[in-house]
Fold this sequence. Notes:
The complex is a heterodimer. By secondary structure, chain A is an alpha/beta fold. Chain A folds into three domains: about 20-145, Rossmann fold (3-Layer(aba) Sandwich), CATH 3.40.50.1980; about 165-280, 3-Layer(aba) Sandwich (Rossmann fold); about 300-445, Rossmann fold (3-Layer(aba) Sandwich), CATH 3.40.50. Chain A contains 18 helices and 14 strands. In chain A, helix 10 (about 245-255) links the parallel strand 8 and strand 9 (about 260). In chain A, helix 7 runs parallel beside helix 10. The longest helix of chain A has 23 residues, at about 425-445. The radius of gyration of chain A is 22 Å and the shape is globular. Chain B is of the alpha/beta class. Chain B has three domains: about 15-25 and about 320-420, Nitrogenase molybdenum iron protein domain (Rossmann fold, 3-Layer(aba) Sandwich), CATH 3.40.50.1980; about 45-180, Rossmann fold (3-Layer(aba) Sandwich); about 195-300, Nitrogenase molybdenum iron protein domain (Rossmann fold, 3-Layer(aba) Sandwich). Helices cover about 45% and strands about 15% of the residues of chain B. Chain B has 17 helices and 14 strands. The radius of gyration of chain B is 23 Å and the shape is globular. Classes of the chains: A alpha/beta, B alpha/beta. The interface between A and B is large, with 74 and 83 residues.
Amino acid sequence: MTTMHTTAKTATQNACKLCNPLGACLAFRGIENSVSFLHGSQGCATYIRRYLISHYKEPIDIASSNFNEDTAVFGGSHNLKLGLKNVSQQYKPAVIGIATTCLSETIGDDVPMILKEYKAIVGDAPMPIMIFASTPSYQGSHIDGFHAAVQATVKTLAESGAKTNVVNLFPGMISPSDIRYMKEIMNDFGIPYVLLPDYSQTMDGGPWGEYHRISPGGTPTSAIASTGSAMASIEFGSTLDAAKSAAGYLEATFGVPRHDMALPIGIKASDRFFATLETLSGKPMPETHQDERRRLVDAYADGHKYVFGRKVIIYGEEDLVISMASFLHEIGVVPVLCASGGKSGQMKKRLLEIIPNMDELGITAREGVDFVDIENETETLKPDFLIGNSKGFTMSKKSELPLIRIGFPIHDRFGGQRLHHLGYRGTQELFDRIVNTVIEQRQNSSEIGYTYM
Amino acid sequence: MDTENISLLEGREKQVYEKKQGGAEVEIACDTKSLSGSVSQRACVFCGSRVVLYPVADAIHIVHGPIGCAAYTWDIRGAVSSGPELHRLSFSTDLQEMDVIYGGEKKLYHSLIELIDQYQPNAAFIYSTCIVGLIGDDIDAVCKKVEKEKGIPVLPVHSEGFKGTKKDGYKAACSALMTLIGTGSTEGISKYSINILGEFNLAGEAWIIREYYERMGIEVVATMTGDGRIDAIRRSHGASLNVVQCSGSMTSLAKDMEEKYGIPFIRVSYFGFEDMSKSLYDVAQLFPDRPEIMEKAKEIVHDEIRRYYPEMQKFKAALTGRKAAIYVGGAFKTFSLIKALRTIGMSVVLAGSQTGNKDDYSRLKEMCDEGTVIVDDSNPVELSKFILEKEADLLIGGVKERPIAFKLGVGFCDHNHERKIPLAGFVGMYNFAKEVYESVMSPVWQFAPRKGGLV
């Protein structure tokens, strides 16, 4: 790994990651009729709600077991049980998605045991399905919590059965618009599918004619149950370990073949995704998508001169960064720094698989960095622009570099939940935005003020 | 719309009250921990400390714990500074599993030394988060050591999230401030001087307020903590009076300063013409030996109201008869908002706060109209229920309440930390009325199902 700055730096300054439970809370929102529940202090739930709301602009309820001093000393069993009872009463959910925090993990609460006791107390009375994910904030980052929750969901609900022609799609942490587009592709192929988690409506839905305790939408539990008998799973994520993933679990437990691949960003990666769908469905790519691909190839040609040789720093979750680097590489943009607050230890390796001569091209990768590290790199690497979530704005303002906002969170622009990133459509959107950033930069810096670019 | 089936949680009934003629005089339960499983709109002890100290701009703020608490509070408030902006950076010891096992003291120590060297702050605040207490880190000892080595105040803030409510966080922040106060020179401070407490300079509000007082001939020694500076805080015990807004967060500091330094305090609010004027008059009254202070206060009130009155009448004409729901952090703000809304012809059908106390709620009961619902530490389900039942046209709250309003087709005014437009002072009342007008009168609501739009 290339390290440019070697000054002592113990503290994390302007973190380029979020904590584990946030990802779990988001993933649980993608199950129909489900409520996310954090086992810990009140603040965790409130902060995470606020953080998610600022991006998605939707009501997001996250319950909390609301630890107090006694709970911390004597354990969270009583609070968790009372909390589950109250959530069941007030929200009448089909599912409660429970995630831990640093507090409940540190005191060593045995949540599965507490849930067993709770079930015994409830007895035969109907109760929601409890899904539990261990998400201590002192391990990994939000993306780990996301995958942990998806895997826990499948572990809890998937059942064995006679093989069907269903395809499971585990797309990871993508935008609601990306989810809707994935569903459209599956429908156009005529493939019966289960997409998990599907928060395309719960996190980006319409107005309410009446009050909803739980936002409409999400993957039904019955559909999740059927993932165990599916013909195959497709799972996005370059650094996602099969042992920690939903598709990995289904393969190991029910023999459902796992097709793991990078997030399909760029033509090459999208081709791989569509080719997999062609194989699984036995059908050629539907004409509308071939058309979308053709327009993208055409756009690449129309716009190539603006982007070739431009240097960019890209940051965010490792999987997003790796896939973006692959896309940028195929349009001639040099991702001089691929940075993440995550620490899978695999980023450089995965990048080398896509861009074997990355060192030669001046492409570097750094894991476990914060925004101050990245900002320092901008001074030496002198990129033309930055690509990543809105938390890079502070750095972009200081370095006077344009920021192309993608992923999560986007707190300082409108419509982050509606951005596309994946497939031919998402790539087209990203390509347009990158080209326009270059054009705008040139137009603004030109004294002449060209009206044709 | 059917809201009958939305029931209150067992154990929450006493925190909800509807004012009715001949209704039983019940006391609203408050000052309690949030109920487990209820989606409280409150945060935690850490949050309380963080919001109070956040605007101190020439100090570094280090969150000792795993990354979340620092990440979620990075540049979170609209508290602006006229100079240094260290408060807008986010520092965390980012504790990992091994730190949890072996302790985080060393990591904290090195973090502090490096950050102080790098940023040259005038002080450092160290916030303990939930697990710090559990893993037994002695942050007081680390702070003392670093303070000695670096020669600046290094202040521990005991804000473990689970050790109480947000109010306990306020107290922890105030006690950190108390250790600073009294360590600076009070030389040259006028007899006609005040500290502005509980004003966080959101969107520059402290500057507006400060200017009014300065125009009256009063010296403002320190604003705590809006546009805050360590040196000003250190000499703030030289002021003659503490003027406390957002009483929930800062009253304890005012009381401590009264006890230790004999500085009296008054509670004020800068929201709405009525309360804003009163806060100038109340201060002027306490300096009777210089009548020109009162003269000047009257002049300011007169000029400012004359300036905004005509525009306000336009808003009032449009908004008269509309109904508002208020759910904010502190109860004191609720009082002002009720009065401010009345100024523009609106009534309040729901009023509540996260942290009000008994006195606050009994005053609220007196102020409210018949049929108004009062809630303490409410949750989204309750808020939605009453917004719909009472047919509110507007909700006043913070980020977490905003999507509830918009989903239900109700206007919204952000009266929380993130606001970018000043709502305090006379100009603030004008901004407030304008914002309410723009949200309530927007033509977009015609498409909301509640107003007959398609579902």
